[in-house]
Amino acid sequence: SQKIEQNSEALNIQEGKTATLTCNYTNYSPAYLQWYRQDPGRGPVFLLLIRENEKEKRKERLKVTFDTTLKQSLFHITASQPADSATYLCALDNSSASKIIFGSGTRLSIRP
Amino acid sequence: GAVVSQHPSRVICKSGTSVKIECRSLDFQATTMFWYRQFPKKSLMLMATSNEGSKATYEQGVEKDKFLINHASLTLSTLTVTSAHPEDSSFYICSARDSTGGGPQHFGDGTRLSIL
Q1: What digits encode the pLDDT tens for the residues B50-86?
Q2: How far A7 CA sits from the closest chain B CA (Å)?
Q3: Residues of chain B whose C-beta is under 8 A from some C-beta in A?
Q4: How far is residue B39's CA from residue A85's CA, in Å, rounded to a whole number?
Q5: What single string gives the DSSP state of each residue in A9-44?
Q6: B28 vs B5, B64, B76, CA distance in Å?
Q7: Which parts of chain A register pLDDT below 70?
Q8: Which of B92, B100, B102, B80 is nearest to B30 (CA)?
Q9: How far apart, in whole angstroms, are the C-alpha atoms of residue B108 and residue B116?
């Protein structure tokens, strides 16, 4: 069955360092991979989308990579700040199914 | 940006009550709306997908008679939890898409439902 794994349930890092979150998937061929941020008690907010034929995407301090051979995406936040503390969800979309499958999320804490 | 409004944000009611949750896309037309349920520290569990003017498609294990979904227009979908019981207590979140295939989902801020 289709499976998405975000390897760390929680990640704690020092302010200013780069946070790297991992998303692995099996039995799936996504056309797109998306990353969302969710704060406690709120709905997820879309951050970045990367297509299967793209290797890397950047937006300000965020960088996403997508390796369809390894079936893995890495999400980086450079120069991390306490305000970046949140749960980050990866999501896979194969376009034809018209629905997105979400990973369980990684709770990121940036300590001052 | 695309905004989705979900109402109410919190509901506390007695067992046996039916509860309606509204999801509106404020500045775009949503071709598809989705309803999710989220347990504490868990990921989003898709309950159903709804397209305007047609019956919702429910995920396996979700009771369609228990969770009634109506998608009356391109900007409004409702979820009614019928005869709610304590085990229905959860965080329910809707989302909407303004394009088919590949576009991001825009989420509401969720409804915290507590059944006493």
Answers
A1: 888 888 999 999 999 999 999 888 899 999 999 999 9
A2: 13
A3: 4, 6, 32, 34, 41-44, 46, 49, 91, 93, 95, 100-110, 112
A4: 20
A5: SEEEEETTSPEEEEEEEES---SEEEEEEE-TTS--
A6: 12, 27, 11
A7: 95-98
A8: B100
A9: 24
